[in-house]
Design brief:
nucleotide-binding; TIM Barrel; 306 residues; 51% helix; 12 helices; eight-stranded parallel beta barrel; alpha/beta
Length: 306
């Protein structure tokens, strides 16, 4: 992990910084990366993205819930997203984090909540993606995912794998046996060198390997990166290996590389925008700054704008 990224994540944990950014952050620049604090605001953002030919995955922000009441409320909030998608006829699916649904309280309780969500996704003929969190929670996440696939099949549920973890090669190989729908990301959590590649070069190389491995296995792959060099490399590889267009999509974050998103759409690629919303946006926002500290300049500039 770079020194700048470590510094951002360390500062983000400061109590005074948390209070300041939580109070003024949306005005300072968080709105660039977060599609509002309410579901109605998020749906309006989805409509605009759909109009530009972009698909969406909505994420009701929140993580590390510590009581059952909040986890149940978060579960209902996710279920409500599916009803809003249906009501407004927008092209979107949903992503969730298991710590928001009670993973740290009780994995069985979390599974019950995730069962309700997966059932709703299937009922609405939609899809839910389970996001991957930090390394201590990876195996628990995979275990819950596997249980849900056994109950509901793989058509309406997918998972995220992070290329900075050493274990991810084995995870992709195992999940690929069942042709699981995977979103491949680089990873955005602070991890020790014992479990994650410390150098960006190795993370990038592993990222490309995992994408190619999963696609070569005939498994649907969401290529989630803003790295244009990697995207260009994979575009060439996809054509050379005659990978069917219905086997992959590119994914990017709301507010990041919007021009590149539209460019890919104009070239005929399927592009999905990960679109978060909600009041608990602080952790998500700070990870976006940590991933690319230059984003902090955008925030600083907004401090001096009326």
């Amino acid at each position: 992990m770079s020194l700048s990224r470590k510094a951002v994540l360390s500062v983000a944990g400061n109590r005074l910084v948390t209070a300041l950014v939580s109070k003024y952050g949306m005005k300072l620049g968080a709105s660039r990366f977060v599609a509002g604090e309410t579901l109605d605001e998020a749906i309006e953002a989805v409509k605009k993205l759909n109009a530009e030919g972009l698909l969406v995955t909505l994420d009701h922000l929140g993580e590390s819930v510590s009581n059952r009441e909040d986890a149940l409320a978060a579960t209902q909030a996710v279920i409500d997203i599916y009803d809003a998608i249906e009501k407004h006829g927008v092209r979107s699916n949903v992503s969730v984090k298991l710590t928001q649904l009670g993973l740290d309280i009780d994995p069985d309780f979390c599974l019950e909540n995730m069962d309700r969500i997966t059932s709703k996704a299937k009922e609405m003929n939609n899809f839910v993606r389970i996001d991957m969190e930090d390394s201590p929670r990876v195996q628990m996440t995979i275990d819950i995912f596997n249980t849900l696939v056994e109950r509901y099949g793989k058509e309406h549920i997918g998972l995220v794998i992070q290329s900075y973890l050493y274990r991810s090669h084995g995870d992709v190989a195992e999940l690929g046996k069942r042709k699981i729908n995977l979103r491949i990301v680089k990873g955005a959590y602070k991890e020790p060198p014992e479990v994650a590649f410390p150098d960006k070069k190795d993370v990038d190389e592993n990222y490309v390997k995992l994408v190619k491995m999963h696609l070569n296995n005939g498994s649907y792959t969401a290529i989630a990166t803003h790295d244009e060099q990697i995207i260009d490399h994979l575009k060439t590889w996809l054509k050379e290996n005659q990978i069917p267009n219905n086997l992959y999509e590119f994914q990017m974050l709301f507010g990041v590389r919007s021009g590149l998103q539209k460019k890919l759409v104009s070239e005929g690629y399927k592009v999905r925008v990960y679109t978060p919303y909600g009041k608990d946006w602080y952790s998500y926002f700070t990870r976006r700054i940590a991933e690319r500290p230059a984003n902090a300049l955008f925030v600083i500039k907004n401090l001096f704008q009326k």
